[in-house]
Amino acid sequence: MSLVTSDEILSSVNSLLNDPGFVRWTKAELLGYFNDAQRAIVLRRPDAYCADVDDFSCVAGTKQSLPADGLRLVDIVRNAAGRAIKGPSDRAVIDDNYPEWYAENTATAVELFFYDERNPKTFYVYPGVLAGTALTVVYSKAPPTITMLQNDAAQTISIDDIFTNAAIEWILYRCYVKDAEYAANPSKSQTHLNAFKAQLGEKSQADVAMAGQQIKE
Prior knowledge:
The protein is α+β, with helices and mostly antiparallel strands. The chain contains six helices and six strands, in the order ααβββαβββααα.
């Protein structure tokens, strides 16, 4: 759960820009950049804003689609009744050995799921299930846009607090892009964009390291 508010982030950015009173970069403008930052972070780190639902309801068959607010599948944990689901699995193995499997639609539990990053809002389940079969699904979704009215009420940000510094770097990058006519600002803009990428890259590396440590234990 996030504790940082968008107002805190904008105040930090305003201080770094040395722009008292939000004169050169208005609060509304910075808030727009922050909303862009949330989306840019989720695009690169789908786990930054996820839904974990126990009542995902399948349509009949093998091909399933994420809810309307879904951007990318993260995991399918289990059947809602409790049975674990393995995946993502190699679909080619089943295609080669059982090419008719796509036509199935009578199972009451899923054993495997298949997912292709090139088609991020769609996944396949094996065996094909009855309509209404419930699964526990984790998926990333677009963070809601924060408005000025909400911001004045000190709304907490949608993404996890650990991505706060990355969001600040993205906002600074956008701010200096605006002032690219000043000689030093294109370099500043690129510096903050690189810092944004580094923040997310370091987070990814830390996650991999932690996962490896857990496996060893």
